[in-house]
């Protein structure tokens, strides 16, 4: 029987800038950490014709497998991002670690700023990180630089500040006796999303801000919710924001306005409101590829499902719900017909989507603290795929989940 194979992953501009440096060695800090490099097998396994083979015993059978536990963060892991052959994990200790797939070696480590990293996204050869200090930092990836990940900007940029700080109308009241420029977040930035050349940032200050990728300029600030924004996702030109106020709101960019707006002139319109359980915070949101189903994770342990008619989202209704966990659902990840839910109860629920329903496939256990973030890889691995989870126990765990049906139970 042939061994399961890790299929080669797609290369992005971010990765192409890094791929040649990985073979030439990392910086001295990474070299000093070689003794602590966590890998799947006890011996390092080389690439063979752009494919990576694991021992057949690793992925035998039809149930999920725990493949690795990666350590190295100084703080609890707060967010993850998949970038082709790399996975980035960030923590409340300000550090961001770049792990190289599939052997899961630590490739680089970077970070700077005040407060923990709350979210990160990659665009081309840049990484955008959102922080507790209400700033977004921009890192350029370059193989010609001594520091592969180099800090190049902070948002709002100084140019953006200089263009607005003199005009009183650019200031908004954030709380009693406190004013800020409308381009600034007044509290932690909790989530980021990217859509059609724009970055969207959601914050505990209840606002959704829109930034242009080309010049890093803040174009718009939307008073989006009545409580903290906990999650953002984009799908087919729509942006979904999940909030502690128990609602998911759907935003659409107006075609007539592509230029800079002010805090009082909106270039985005509210397309729909998805209402969850009363007095229950929505902590995460994901949308299926065709946009027909939206999933939200609640602080009461439920995963909620909304469905709408084709051609619009205004009529979306709550059509299903699952008591997924004993404690709050903190994160969700969606790949193909599978949905994953991470919880404060330290477990990860595995669900198969069937219509508007969810079938329980299993539970992944191993974290010693709440599961804060999840990323499922769409790449096929030995008849299944990989799932990455970050927890408040400071560990990044790697799981293998089979694609074939295995004793599902309708919930």
From TrEMBL:
Residues 17-27 have a biased composition (Low complexity). PROSITE patterns: WD_REPEATS_2, WD_REPEATS_REGION. It holds the Pfam family WD40. Residues 17-40 are annotated as: Disordered. CDD domains: WD40. Keywords: WD repeat. WD repeats lie at residues 182-221, 222-251, 322-351, 364-399. SUPFAM superfamilies: WD40 repeat-like. This is Uncharacterized protein. It comes from Stephania yunnanensis. The lineage of its organism: Eukaryota, Viridiplantae, Streptophyta, Embryophyta, Tracheophyta.
């Amino acid at each position: 029987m042939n061994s399961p194979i890790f299929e080669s992953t797609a290369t992005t501009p971010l990765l192409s800038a890094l791929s040649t440096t990985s073979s030439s060695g990392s910086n001295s800090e990474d070299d000093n950490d070689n003794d602590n490099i966590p890998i799947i097998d006890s011996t390092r396994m080389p690439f063979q014709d752009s494919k990576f083979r694991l021992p057949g015993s690793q992925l035998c059978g039809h149930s999920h497998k725990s493949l690795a536990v990666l350590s190295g963060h100084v703080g609890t892991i707060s967010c993850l991002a998949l970038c082709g052959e790399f996975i980035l994990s960030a923590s409340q200790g300000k550090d961001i670690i770049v792990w190289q797939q599939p052997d899961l070696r630590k490739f680089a480590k970077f970070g700077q700023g005040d407060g923990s990293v709350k979210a990160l996204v990659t665009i081309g050869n840049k990484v955008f990180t959102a922080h507790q200090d209400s700033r977004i930092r921009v890192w350029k990836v370059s193989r010609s630089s001594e520091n592969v990940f180099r800090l190049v900007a902070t948002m709002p940029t100084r140019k953006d500040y200089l263009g607005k700080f003199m005009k009183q109308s650019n200031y908004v009241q954030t709380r009693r006796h406190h004013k800020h420029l409308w381009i600034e977040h007044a509290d932690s930035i909790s989530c980021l999303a990217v859509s059609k050349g724009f970055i969207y940032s959601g914050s505990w200050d209840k606002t959704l801000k829109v930034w242009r990728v080309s010049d890093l300029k803040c174009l718009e600030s939307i008073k989006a919710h009545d409580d903290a924004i906990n999650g953002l996702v984009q799908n087919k030109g729509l942006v979904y924001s999940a909030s502690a106020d128990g609602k998911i709101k759907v935003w659409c960019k107006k075609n007539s306005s592509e230029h800079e707006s002010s805090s009082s002139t909106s270039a985005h319109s509210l397309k729909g409101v998805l209402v969850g359980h009363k007095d229950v915070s929505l902590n995460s949101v994901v949308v299926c590829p065709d946009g027909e189903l939206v999933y939200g994770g609640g602080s009461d342990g439920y995963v909620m499902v909304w469905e709408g008619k084709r051609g619009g989202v205004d009529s979306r209704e709550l059509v299903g719900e699952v008591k997924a966990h004993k404690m709050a659902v903190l994160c969700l990840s969606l790949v193909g017909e599978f949905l994953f839910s991470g919880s404060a109860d330290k477990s990860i629920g595995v669900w198969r989507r069937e219509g508007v329903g969810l079938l329980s496939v299993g539970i992944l256990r191993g974290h010693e603290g709440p599961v804060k973030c999840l990323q499922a890889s769409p790449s096929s691995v030995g008849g299944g795929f990989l799932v990455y989870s970050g927890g408040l126990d400071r560990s990044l765990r790697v799981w293998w989940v089979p694609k074939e049906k295995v004793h599902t139970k309708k919930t």
